[in-house]
Amino acid sequence: MATTTKQAYTPLNEQTVIELSQELDLFSDYSSLEVNEIGDGNLNLVFRLVEPATKKSVIIKQALPYAKVVGESWPLTLDRARIESDSLKKFAEFSPEHVPEILYTNNELAVTVMEDLSSHVILRKGLIDGVTYPSLAQHIGTFIAKNLFYTSDFYLHPFEKKRLVQQFTNPELCKITEDLVFTDPFYDIETNDYPAELQDAVSELWNDATLRNKATRLKLKFLTHAEALLHGDLHSGSIFVTEESTKIIDSEFAYYGPQGFDIAHFFANIAMNHIAQRAHIKDKEKRAEYQLYLSGLIRDTWNTFTDTYKGLWRNEGVELATKLPGFEDEVLESIFTDMVGFAGCEVIRRTIGLAHVADLDSIADFDEQILLKKKALKLGRDWVKNKQRIKNIEEFITSIRSV
To answer: Is 116 annotated as a binding residue?
Structure first.
C-alpha cells in the first residue's frame, strides 16, 4: 500500500476520500468507485468505498474536531483517531479475530482505513429485533478477559505497563465520560435530555444524596485506577455481529482504567434491551424466551470472562501476586462489584443523559416508553447504591428480571 504526503487536516468528502484512496492505491479501478458516507455516530465521518467489478471494499474513518451531536461549539481532540487505531492494533495482539483489520492510519489527517464489516450488523439493532447470537457470550467474555489480563500489572513488566499508560492517556475523551456518565445525570445540568413526563423520577434521583455519593466514588475509581487498557465505550452499538463472528469497533475512548468498566457497559446495554423487550416483543411467550436468552448471554459472558481470566492468571501470570492462594478470587470479586456500580451509572446516563439508546427511545407507545424508562432508572439507582449487596452473577441477573 502506498503512503500519503504530509497534509494539513481537512474534513473529507466523497470526492477527497476517493483521492485519498488513489494515493493509497487501495483499488485497481477508480472510474466507477462507489462511495457512501455511512456514519451514524456522534464523533466521526465514516465512508464505505466499493469497487463494483471486484466487490473489494474498505472503510475510511476520519475523526471530526467536534461532536456532531452538538456541533462546532463542542471541540474535540483529533488525537482520538490515534487512540482508536493504536488500541485496535493492541487488541489485535490478543484477539485478532474480534477487531477489524487496520490497513492504514494517518494521525495528521485523523484517518484510519480498516476492514469493511458490512457483512455484519450492529449488535444493538439485532437485539432490538430479537435476534440471538450463539457465539457472542464466548467472544465478548474472552475478548475482555484477554485485553484486561495482558495489559495489566499481573502480566506486563512494570516499565512496559507504564509506557502503555502514557501511550493511551486520553484526557479529552475521558472527560466526556467523567461528565456524561458520572456527573451530569446526577445533577440539574443542561446536557441532560429527557421528557417532562420523567421529571418526578429525575428529581427524586437528583435529591438522593446517597446515590450521588456512590456515583462520585465510582467516578473517583474511574479517575484513579489505571488497572488495564479498556475499550472505554463497549456498548452494543460498538459491536458488529453475525451468528459466527463478533467484531469490536469504535475504541476512541480507550484508556487505562478499572477492570470492571468495559464489561459493565456491555451488561448495562443488555439489561436495557431486556427491559425494552416488553415493548418490542408483544407475544408473551416469545418475549419470555428472548429475555431468558438475554439473561443467559449475561451469565455466559461473565462465566467465560472469569474462566478465561483465571486460566491466564494461573498459566501466564508474572507478578508475584498471581502466586498468592486465593488472590485471583479477590481480584475478580472486586471487578464484579465495580461492574455492578459502573453498569448502574451507564443505565442512568443512557436514560436521562446525553446520547440515549434506541432500545428504549424507539418504543412507539410513548406512555410505555416512559414506564420502561422509569424501570431502567430504578434498576440503575439500585445498582449504584447497592453494588456490594449483589454478590454474584445470578443475583445480578435476578435484579434485571425483577425490575
So the answer is: yes
